[in-house]
Specification:
Blueprint lengths: L1 E3 L5 H10 L7 E8 L2 E8 L2 E8 L5 H24 L12 H10 L4 H7 L4 H15 L5 E7 L1 E2 L11 E2 H4 L3 H15 L6 E8 L7 H11 L8 E7 L6 H9 L4 E7 L3 H6 L6 H13 L3 E8 L6 H13 L4 E6 L7 H4 L9 H15 L7
Parallel strand pairs: 1-2, 5-8, 6-7, 8-9, 9-10, 10-11, 11-12
Antiparallel strand pairs: 2-3, 3-4
Helix pairs in contact: 1-2, 3-4, 3-5, 7-8, 8-9, 12-14
Bound molecules: iron/sulfur cluster.
Length: 368
């Protein structure tokens, strides 16, 4: 249980507590700010820990960002010496490379910030590599199209998306508005470097509506542009939708197994099996798409050995990319509501296994 005098810091701090599997323990936190100094005091098991970080926020947005950052770091510094360091240090959230890029664009060396946040040398190096691969393609624009509909809602999901059975009545008007919006931004889309249709699970859309979205996007990008559809959960793949995608120029498809272990899939409310993933993969491969496979490390009750088996299964398929996420529960995730504990014990092992096996199987990080 966390008691803090600053409510908006609560979700951020809970992310750190969860990463250490300590969310059910008693913590008291006091935050204050004065004259460019952020003060955080943490009481844990009758011990008091004081931290002071200096930084001059330019505005309220920066103030909030720094206060979240330093409060998380304070908790990390209390817990890491007791329970061991984590590969991403006090960095929680889903896009470390975005943070690195923001630092670089502001003229700062992101490595210094990562060091302050206790990110491991290996992960800092990996972010540097991804940043330089992505930098080679910078300068253009990307278009992201969201289709926030899914077959059902997975228990760990915090994306803005809803089960299609509850939202079917909005589909036609959503796609209509979306297509009008795409048409209205077309004049701004010169020099696109990539287009990504995500969500949600785009392939849950009925064939005709998916075709309407593709038709609105068509003609927007030069030939050869990376054009991805996050087809998504294997249980919605069909030959017809893959053929439609190919016809409209899609050249990259995401198949999202998350795990190849059927027990894990059932435990997280995923409602499909590993066999369905393999079938979806085979179908997508037949059409010649570049395929990305998504896996998640740290899913409830999954052991490092089970995760490694999933990773090896994914590598054996030789997709163009494999993306390994670590589970991050935000508000809106059913698992968080149930206060289920993440499998954090083996997460470090899963990440280092991923780095080792993927570095051996792939020569460089993906551009995507
Ligand atoms: S995790 Fe993916 S498939 Fe599951 S509900 Fe969220 S967006 Fe949909």
């Amino acid at each position: 249980m966390l008691n803090t005098n600053c409510e908006y810091l609560c979700p951020e701090i809970m992310d750190v507590l969860r990463a250490f599997g300590r969310e059910e323990e008693e913590f008291t936190h006091y935050f204050s700010y004065s004259g460019g100094k952020f003060f955080n005091t943490v009481e844990y098991r009758s011990q008091f820990y004081d931290f002071v970080d200096e930084c001059d926020p330019a505005d309220d947005v920066e103030f909030k960002r720094f206060s979240k950052r330093f409060s998380k770091l304070s908790f990390y510094k209390v817990l890491a010496p007791i329970y061991g360091s984590l590969p991403w240090g006090a960095l929680t959230g889903i896009r470390p490379v975005k943070l690195a890029r923001t630092e670089r664009d502001a003229g700062r060396d992101f490595r210094e910030l990562f060091k302050k946040l206790c990110v491991s040398a290996e992960n800092t190096e990996m972010c540097g590599k991804i940043l330089s691969v992505q930098s080679a393609r910078e300068g253009g624009k990307s278009l992201y199209v969201s289709l926030p509909f899914c077959p059902t809602k997975c228990d760990y999901c915090s994306f803005i998306t809803a089960p299609i059975d509850k939202t079917r009545q909005y589909l036609v008007s959503y796609v209509d508005c979306l297509c009008r919006e795409i048409n209205s931004v077309k004049p701004l889309c010169g020099g696109l470097k990539s287009v990504y249709i995500g969500g949600g699970t785009p392939f849950v859309l009925p064939y005709d509506l998916l075709g309407e979205v593709y038709a609105a996007v068509s003609g927007i990008m030069p030939e050869g542009t990376e054009y991805t559809v996050e087809a998504g959960r294997p249980d919605v793949f069909t030959e017809e939708k893959l053929a439609l995608s190919l016809r409209y120029g899609v050249n990259r498809v995401c198949v999202n197994p998350q795990s190849f272990n059927d027990e894990t899939l059932a435990a997280i409310g995923r409602k499909h099996t590993a066999a369905q993933t393999l079938k979806a993969y085979e179908m997508a491969e037949k059409y010649g798409f570049d395929i990305n496979l998504d896996l998640i490390a740290g899913l409830a009750d999954e052991t490092p050995a089970q995760f490694t088996a999933s990773l090896k299964r994914a590598i054996s398929l030789s997709p163009a990319n494999i993306t390994v996420h670590t589970l991050s529960l935000k508000s809106g995730a059913k698992l968080k509501e149930r206060l289920a504990r993440l499998n954090v014990a083996g997460i470090e092992e899963m990440i280092s296994t991923s780095r080792e096996l993927l570095s051996a199987a792939y020569t460089s990080p993906s551009k995507s």
